[in-house]
Amino acid sequence: MSQQLTVIAHLVTRPEKIDEAKTAMLSLIEKTRSEDGCLDYDLHQGNENPMEFTFYEIWKNRQAWEEHMEMSYLKEFVARGDEFFEIEPKILFMAMISARR
After folding, report:
1. Strand pairing class (52-59; 5-12)
2. Cα separation of 78 and 88, whole Å?
Protein backbone atom coordinates (compact mmCIF):
# COMPACT_ATOMS: atom_id res chain seq x y z
CA MET A 1 0.00 0.00 0.00
CA SER A 2 1.38 3.42 -0.91
CA GLN A 3 1.77 6.09 1.73
CA GLN A 4 -0.57 9.06 2.12
CA LEU A 5 0.87 12.33 0.87
CA THR A 6 0.50 15.69 2.60
CA VAL A 7 1.06 18.72 0.38
CA ILE A 8 1.57 22.23 1.74
CA ALA A 9 1.39 24.86 -1.00
CA HIS A 10 2.30 28.41 0.07
CA LEU A 11 1.38 31.18 -2.37
CA VAL A 12 1.87 34.94 -2.22
CA THR A 13 -0.40 37.00 -4.46
CA ARG A 14 0.35 40.26 -6.15
CA PRO A 15 -1.19 43.08 -4.05
CA GLU A 16 -3.57 44.09 -6.82
CA LYS A 17 -4.65 40.47 -7.43
CA ILE A 18 -5.62 39.36 -3.89
CA ASP A 19 -9.37 39.21 -4.51
CA GLU A 20 -9.17 37.72 -7.99
CA ALA A 21 -6.63 35.09 -6.96
CA LYS A 22 -8.63 34.23 -3.83
CA THR A 23 -11.77 33.70 -5.91
CA ALA A 24 -9.84 31.49 -8.31
CA MET A 25 -8.34 29.44 -5.46
CA LEU A 26 -11.71 29.02 -3.74
CA SER A 27 -13.15 27.76 -7.04
CA LEU A 28 -10.75 24.79 -6.85
CA ILE A 29 -12.03 23.52 -3.49
CA GLU A 30 -15.25 21.70 -4.38
CA LYS A 31 -13.85 20.21 -7.60
CA THR A 32 -10.72 18.98 -5.87
CA ARG A 33 -12.56 17.54 -2.87
CA SER A 34 -14.65 15.46 -5.28
CA GLU A 35 -11.56 13.72 -6.69
CA ASP A 36 -11.28 10.08 -5.60
CA GLY A 37 -7.79 10.43 -4.18
CA CYS A 38 -8.40 13.63 -2.19
CA LEU A 39 -8.71 13.07 1.55
CA ASP A 40 -8.48 16.72 2.66
CA TYR A 41 -8.11 20.01 0.80
CA ASP A 42 -8.30 23.32 2.64
CA LEU A 43 -7.28 26.88 1.84
CA HIS A 44 -5.97 29.30 4.47
CA GLN A 45 -5.31 33.06 4.22
CA GLY A 46 -2.76 34.93 6.32
CA ASN A 47 -4.09 36.97 9.24
CA GLU A 48 -1.12 39.33 9.25
CA ASN A 49 -0.52 39.35 5.50
CA PRO A 50 -3.67 38.80 3.40
CA MET A 51 -1.51 38.26 0.30
CA GLU A 52 -0.34 34.91 1.75
CA PHE A 53 -2.37 31.76 1.08
CA THR A 54 -1.67 28.16 2.00
CA PHE A 55 -3.33 25.04 0.68
CA TYR A 56 -3.23 22.11 3.12
CA GLU A 57 -3.85 18.91 1.20
CA ILE A 58 -3.92 15.21 2.07
CA TRP A 59 -3.94 12.71 -0.76
CA LYS A 60 -4.42 8.95 -0.75
CA ASN A 61 -0.95 8.67 -2.34
CA ARG A 62 1.46 10.49 -4.65
CA GLN A 63 -0.26 9.11 -7.74
CA ALA A 64 -3.59 10.67 -6.65
CA TRP A 65 -1.88 14.07 -6.32
CA GLU A 66 -0.23 13.65 -9.73
CA GLU A 67 -3.64 12.88 -11.25
CA HIS A 68 -4.98 16.02 -9.56
CA MET A 69 -2.25 18.07 -11.21
CA GLU A 70 -3.47 16.85 -14.63
CA MET A 71 -7.05 18.08 -14.11
CA SER A 72 -8.03 20.72 -16.68
CA TYR A 73 -9.37 23.13 -14.05
CA LEU A 74 -6.10 22.99 -12.13
CA LYS A 75 -4.01 23.41 -15.28
CA GLU A 76 -6.05 26.54 -16.10
CA PHE A 77 -5.34 27.91 -12.62
CA VAL A 78 -1.61 27.11 -12.79
CA ALA A 79 -1.40 28.79 -16.21
CA ARG A 80 -2.45 32.06 -14.53
CA GLY A 81 0.32 31.83 -11.92
CA ASP A 82 2.44 34.68 -13.30
CA GLU A 83 -0.64 36.90 -13.32
CA PHE A 84 -1.70 36.07 -9.75
CA PHE A 85 1.49 35.47 -7.78
CA GLU A 86 4.29 37.74 -6.62
CA ILE A 87 6.81 34.91 -6.13
CA GLU A 88 7.13 31.28 -7.16
CA PRO A 89 4.82 29.10 -5.04
CA LYS A 90 6.56 26.97 -2.42
CA ILE A 91 5.33 23.38 -2.46
CA LEU A 92 6.24 20.93 0.31
CA PHE A 93 5.63 17.19 0.08
CA MET A 94 5.35 15.58 3.49
CA ALA A 95 4.36 12.41 5.32
CA MET A 96 2.28 12.58 8.50
CA ILE A 97 4.20 10.89 11.28
CA SER A 98 1.89 11.55 14.24
CA ALA A 99 -1.07 9.35 15.00
CA ARG A 100 -4.55 10.86 14.84
CA ARG A 101 -6.52 10.88 18.07
Report:
1. antiparallel
2. 11
